[in-house]
Amino acid sequence: MAVPKTVGLETEYGIVHRGAPEPNSISASSLLINAYLVGTHQAPEPGRAAVGWDFTDETPGNDARGGVPAGSLAPEIETHLVNAVLTNGARYYVDHAHPELSTPECADARAVVVYDRAAELIAARSMEAARMLLPPGEEIVVYKNNSDGKGNSYGCHENYLVSRAVPFSRIVTHATAHFVTRQIFCGAGKVGSETSGMRLDDAGYQISQRADFIEEEVGLETTLKRPIVNTRDEPHADAAKYRRLHVIVGDANMSQVATFLKVGTTALVMALTEDDAVPREMRFATPVAALRQVSRDLSLREPLELVDGATITALGAQWELLAAARAYVETRGADAVGGDVAHQVLDRWEAVLGGLERDPTSLAAQIDWVAKLRLLEGFRERHGLDFTDARLRALDIQYHDLRPAKSLAARAGLETLVDEAEAELAMTEPPPDTRAFFRGRCLQRFAAQVVAANWDSIVFDVGEGSLRRVSMAEPARGTVAHVGTMFDECVSAVDLLRRLGAAGA
Amino acid sequence: MAEREQIRKPAPANREPSVEEAPSSSERGSDIKAQLDDLLDEIDEVLETNAEDFVKSYIQKGGE
User: Which domains does chain A have, with CATH numbers?
Assistant: First the structure.
């Protein structure tokens, strides 16, 4: 049985410290995040430690395939950098040399769009706050993209809760079919190519930011030899019941429709996988080559070779997955995949595939790679440029600029699915229907007694000698329905812990 | 191709038409062109002034 799809995004942002004599992306990221925390009063009072991240249960080196293959590199955790938990249940931290924001756990794709937009607003607010602290002439700027155009990539990772009972090999099969082909609606578009051995101008424009950096079919790595399907086995939940599919292959999207579809369709494909409801195994003969081929095929018409000798286009593969998902929801319902939101995903998925088939340019308000290409082509024509011109590369990067005054995506007429007031509220309020509600409320109400938090627990110090850890191994518990009234009635952290103890939580 | 045509007809009977179905061609044309022109004017205004330097200095460390 498919488990309810708790989902979330982790976005690493590009960062530039303009006007700095010796720019350093790590210190710029720290300054950016700290400026936000101070500006929104989420920083610790003097004399107290911040509510930090608790690494006790982190095991990113565990491999979903069981053993760890020789030569593979377990990801390292950096514990010494800024690492904050926000009152909306999100995590905002410095990862390697980038600011990164992980959304709180969400119960459906629409909620992910709300919290992803909230993350953009948090980044914009952070830039404003940082500017107040910097000398005149300096500015920290944040970009929501995945590549610097020079061979360096940073990720927008997705997470999907799946049942432990499903064989991992089945996940690999169906996830690969989806990831190779879903780019046609969730690619963010990129000028040029960064594949080793190719010159930068070998591809004038391609659909995906990320395809050039994917080199393996399956693996544990995230920073080199990146795989289509990542095997990190770290559920951040009851490991006997759950896996967390950690997806590293995707682009960060500026279009809300693209984010909605990226998450919504993948959640559906995972539910189908758990319930063995995909009609056939669509195995590509060379998945990595197919992924790159799809990224470079703006016609969307090139056949991809399957292991059985047949071929299919990316559009054909997506029509097939859509039909399977429709049939699944019609026979088994949508409870595991976000209820009503799943129906919206299906309708939108169908409309977008139809648009891509008839005329991709009709989707310039929905699909990032189409929206960006429209700007590039218009600009190119107006100024008579070829695709190697620096102004087109600048336009590509600036599409992803998160400063409202500079962002080109914000000017491209993209359709929105959530209104700004809802996203602004989500900067500080947790989603009501996952355990993020419990985490967020604890930080809103009792931050002074919270020593540390992570995805599946919160540690309190209420001055009784020993620290108290509250476990949250069930992502769908700790919601407003479960604990909302309890929070309303609680007068202190001690009171909360007493009630939780009495309830056996 | 014929096979896909069959697969992708998932009973549209009781569904509302989607909002972003392609607009009729009469709505397109000069309107769209004017919109794009306005947009390009705006891009000319906000695009980084020294594109060459901007692109050159946009260097990120690998992440994840």
Answer: 7-425 (3.30.590), 436-503 (no CATH)
* Dist CA A92 CA A490 (whole Å): 27
**pLDDT level of residue A45 (50, 70, 90 thresholds):** low
Count of alpha carbons within 13 angstroms of residue A109, beta-carbon side: 27
Task: Name every chain B residue with its beta carbon within 8 A of the beta carbon of A382.
Answer: 40
* DSSP 3-state of A72: coil
Question: What's the predicted TM-score (pTM) here?
Answer: 0.92
**Cα–Cα distance between B56 and A98 in angstroms, integer?**
19
Range from A7-16, A81-90, A403-412, A421-430 carrying the lowest mean pLDDT: A81-90
Chain B positions touching A75 (Cβ under 8 A) are 64
Label each residue of A302-371 as H, E or C.
CCEEECCCCEECHHHHHHHHHHHHHHHHHHHCCHHHCCHHHHHHHHHHHHHHHHHHHCHHHHCCCCHHHH
Check B4 against A375: CB less than 8 A apart. no
Contact between A251 and A368 (Cβ < 8 Å): yes
Q: How many whole angstroms separate alpha carbon B43 and alpha carbon A152? A: 26
Q: In angstroms, what separates the C-alpha of B1 from chain A's closest C-alpha?
A: 8
Give the chain A residue nearest B43 (alpha carbons): A408
Residue A460 has which token pair?
A: 């309190």
Hey, how many other C-beta atoms are within 10 angstroms of the C-beta on A241?
14
